[in-house]
Amino acid sequence: MNDTTLLHFPTDFPIKVMGKADADFRSLVVGIVSQHFGAIDAEQIEERPSSAGRYLGITVTVRAESREQLDAVYRDLTSCQRVLVAL
After folding, report:
1. Comparing C-alpha atoms, which of 1, 72, 49, 77 is closest to residue 86?
2. Residues 6+ apart with CB under 8 A from 10
3. What is the spatial distance between Cα 72 and Cα 50, in angstroms, rounded to a whole number?
4. 74 with 86: CB under 8 angstroms?
5. Average pLDDT, stretch 41-67?
6. Residue 40 contacts residue 73 (beta carbons within 8 Å)
7. Is 16 helix (H, G, I), strand (E, B) or coil?
8. Cβ–Cβ < 8 Å for 10, 46
9. Is 3 a domain residue?
10. What domain range is 31 assigned to?
C-alpha cells in the first residue's frame, strides 16, 4: 500500500457535509465530528442552505493529526443515513 499523501500532519482540514435541512442536522454533524476531534468552536463551523432551503451544507474545519483520524470521521459520517454527501 502506498502511504504517500499530499497532506502533512497536523493540518487544518475542512470537512464538508450535506444533508436535509432538518432542525437538528447541524448538531448531528457536529456531534459526529467532535467524537473524533473534541470540542468544536462555533467559528470552526460554516453553514450554507441550498437555494430552495431543503438542504444544508455544513463545513467544519478541524485540526487533523493523522490520515487515520480523517478516515475514521469520514467512515462515521458516510455511515449516517441522514448524511447525503461528505467531502
Report:
1. 77
2. 63, 64, 65
3. 27
4. yes
5. 97
6. no
7. strand
8. no
9. no
10. 11-86
Residue 48 pLDDT more than 50?
A: yes
25 neighbors 49 (Cβ within 8 angstroms): no
Q: What is the CA radius of gyration of the chain?
A: 13
Answer yes or no: is 6 within a domain.
no
- Looking at the domain assignment, is residue 2 inside a domain? no
What is the domain count for the chain?
1
Query: Coil, helix or strand for 18?
Result: strand
Which set of grid coordinates corresponds to residue 1?
Answer: 500500500
Residue 5: inside a domain, yes or no? no
| pLDDT exceeds cutoff 70 at 1 | no
pTM: 0.91
Phi, psi torsion values for 16, nearest 5 degrees: -105, 130
Residue pLDDT, tens place only, 57-85 = 999 999 999 999 999 999 999 999 999 99
Residue 26 belongs to domain with CATH number: 3.30.70.260
